[in-house]
Amino acid sequence: ANFSDITQQGINFTGIIDINNPNTIDISIENLSVDMKTETGIPVGTVSIQGASIPAKTTRQLTGNGWILLKALDAETLQMTLTGAIVIYIAGIRKPMNVSLEADILPPRIEQLLSDLPTEASLTGEYTYTLKNGLHDKITFTITNPNKLTLLAKDITVQIFRADGTKTRMISNGTLSDGLITPQSTTFLQGDMFIPLTQFRPRLGEHFIPDQLQVVLRSNVTIQGLNQTIWIGVIGYQDFPIHRFLWETIS
Predict the structure, then answer these.
(1) What's the pLDDT score for residue 190?
(2) What's the angle, vertex CA 73, arms to CA 154 and CA 157, rounded to 5?
């Protein structure tokens, strides 16, 4: 079994079976098809296999193609039922015999089907200050999707740390709203983070002004409607804008 060419509508499925004819007469295979269901019995697709003649004492490989629904990826197992007919000719008389076979396969993981994982991602921040709200960081999460289908970024969490040499301390954490990642393009997801000015008071081992701000973003990426996800993490380092901080705090 081979899964490929995932789209918003489904997944291309190629099935290959080897049929051995141990008899001393030729046989024909007709009307072969494979019905696929999840372990709970939900139909997710059908594969048609072209019939063929199999000479005596030989083995032939038959290939079929079809599409299965995206929800098949969330199944624990996929149950395949192959049905068709074996036809033999004896003394000029055609004798068909029905055949039915069952097999279970594991559905693929979503990362195996995507042509490229959306690994080109970055973080930027735009800062403003007020005495009332402290540091306002407008976070921009930039992510490139090289695939031909829309993805969904969800469960996006953001943590901001002050970095003093090799020492870090979390000073803010929050979330960004879920967002669709458009196919074969770059998407920008934005959100707001606030850091109270009290978090910048140096503690033991910290500098008066932090060397940098470290922003850590984590997100689950999936295809809308699926339970499977791909985990993505991005870390960005931003210089602490001391001049703007002092100016806006004083003013």
Answers:
(1) 93
(2) 15
